[in-house]
Design brief:
With about 150 residues, this protein is mostly helical. It is elongated and about 110 Å long.
C-alpha cells in the first residue's frame, strides 16, 4: 500500500475510530444487536447484556410481582398482578380480586338490563329514577309512571 496523503488520513481515522467505538453486543433474551448495554439485576435470573426493551420488561415484571395490595370490597391481600381493575362505569379507584370482580360484574349487568322495582327486562327505552326517589338502577315505563304518580299524590 502506497503511503499517500489520502491513505495516511484514512489510516489515522480508522485507528481513532477503533479506540472510541465499542464492540458490538447482542441482547441475551431477544438476540438483537445493541449499542447500549444494560446490566441485568441478580434477582432477575437473566444474564447481561440486555437491550433497553428487555431491560424494561424484566424491571416491570420484578416491580409488579413485589407489590401487594388489598381488594377493595373483601380486603384479601394479594399481588397486584392477581387483582383486577374495575370497569370505568363502576366509578371505583382501587383493585378487586377475581371473586369480587365477578360479583360486581353480575350486579352491574343486572342493574343495567332489568328494572330495579319489578325486575322485568328493559328494552331499548330506559328510564332513570329521580334523585329524591332514592332508587338505584333504571326503571321500566310502568314503574317510572307509578313512582311519579305516588310522589305527585303526596
Amino acid at each position: 500500500m502506497k503511503l499517500t496523503a489520502k491513505n495516511i488520513i484514512f489510516l489515522k481515522n480508522k485507528i481513532c475510530m477503533g479506540i472510541f467505538s465499542r464492540k458490538p453486543a447482542n441482547c441475551t433474551i431477544c438476540n438483537k444487536q445493541i449499542t447500549h448495554k444494560n446490566k441485568a439485576k441478580r434477582e432477575w435470573g437473566v444474564k447481561s447484556p440486555l437491550c433497553s426493551d428487555c431491560y424494561l420488561d424484566k424491571m416491570q415484571e420484578s416491580y409488579d410481582a413485589s407489590i401487594i395490595k388489598k381488594c377493595v370490597s373483601c380486603g384479601v391481600k394479594s399481588k397486584v398482578t392477581d387483582l383486577w381493575e374495575p370497569r370505568l362505569q363502576w366509578d371505583m379507584e382501587d383493585l378487586l380480586c377475581k371473586k369480587c370482580f365477578d360479583e360486581k360484574e353480575l350486579d352491574f349487568n343486572k342493574k343495567r338490563d332489568f328494572c330495579s322495582i319489578c325486575g322485568s327486562k328493559l328494552g331499548f327505552i330506559r328510564y332513570n329514577a329521580k334523585n329524591h326517589w332514592k332508587i338505584k338502577g333504571q326503571l321500566c315505563k310502568n314503574c317510572w309512571d307509578n313512582q311519579k304518580s305516588q310522589i305527585d299524590r303526596k
